[in-house]
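so my prof wants the structure for this chain in the C-alpha cells format not the other one, which i didnt know existed until like an hour ago. anyway here's the sequence
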Amino acid sequence: MLAAAFIMQGRFSAIADLSDTYIDVSNTYIRPTIALMERLSTMPAHKWEHEKNRFLAWCVESAKKIDTCAQATGAAVDEGIVRSILALQKRVLEAMGEEYETD
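here's what i got, hopefully its the right format
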C-alpha cells in the first residue's frame, strides 16, 4: 500500500512538472509564434522578406529555448523519481527494522 502511494505521488509530481512546463512553453513560445504567423500573413509585400526572416529567427531561437526547458523538466522529473524511490526505500528499511525488533 505504501509503495503504491509513493508511486502515485511520483507520477503526480511528474505530471505537475510536465504541466507547468507545457503552460510556460505555450505562453512564452507557442502563442507568440501563432500571433507572429498571423501578423506575417497580413504583412505588406514590401515588408514581407524582412519580417519573414525575423519570424524564422524567432522560431529557431524559440526551438532552442523549448529544448532547454524540456531538458530541465526531464531533470526535475528524474530528481522527483529518485526522491520517491529513496523515500520508499527508507520506509521499507524502517519496516524491516520493526519486523526484526518484534521477532
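also thought this was worth mentioning. The radius of gyration is 24 Å.
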